[in-house]
Amino acid sequence: MEGHGDIPLGQVIAFIVAYPNGQMIDFELVGLLPPRGMTGLTRGRRQNHHVLQPAELEAGTQFIEVKHGRSASKPKERGHYSTTLTNICGQRVRVLRFAGYTRTPEGWTLNTVTGGFYSAQEFREWYGLGENEWLAPRESACDPNNYGGPPVLWAYFCQTEDGKDFIAGGVLK
Predict the structure, then answer these.
(1) What is the pLDDT of residues 7-60, one digit of tens each?
(2) Which of the residues 15, 37, 84, 150 could staple to 142 if both were Cys, CB 3.0 to 4.6 A apart?
């Protein structure tokens, strides 16, 4: 808590974890109202059991490399990790939407806390791009505190500067 020193964990009864845009990703308010301007993750329209097959991700490997590493906040916990996207092609690319998927007998099935896809704006905010919608060649974007139980696939529905659509993905095993 800024200006008040360290607070012993046992004394914390309410908290909010949020992105800089005010979007809360975790909280325990204990009956308190959230501060003005704070919003939550909104439930998306259910994607009717959206399933991806590995072949759908092949084209994306020529544009975006997706890698998982240690989480900035919980580096020793397997279910917490960083996810980095690097543009490996010669033109700018942008993420239009993205989601986490779990393995099922049918393939990789969409599985997010909202029930739908996350938006391009959420990608820019969570991956540190701010209002910049494009990743330049060799540029990376990283969510340093991603989470989800392995195995998990993070899939990014993208577009190149010249309008080619593709899906890039990376599996955390």
Answers:
(1) 777 777 776 767 667 766 666 667 777 777 766 655 445 555 789 999 999 999
(2) 84
CATH 2.60.40.10 is held by the domain 51-172:
yes
Residue 97 has a CB neighbour count (10 Å cut-off) of 16
Q: What is the residue-wise DSSP string for 158-170?
A: EEETTS-EEEEEE
Residue 110: phi and psi, rounded to 5, are -55, 135
Q: What is the pTM of this model?
A: 0.78
Give the domain ranges of the chain: 9-40, 51-172
CA distance 85 to 138: 10
Please tell me what DSSP assigns to residue 3.
T
Report the C-alpha dihedral over residues 110, 79, 159, 24, rounded to 10 degrees.
90
Of 73, 82, 75, 97, nearest to 166 by C-alpha is 97
**DSSP annotation string for 133-158:** --BPTT-EEEEEEEE-PSSEEEEEEE
| Residue of 145, 148, 98 whose CA lies nearest to 124 | 98
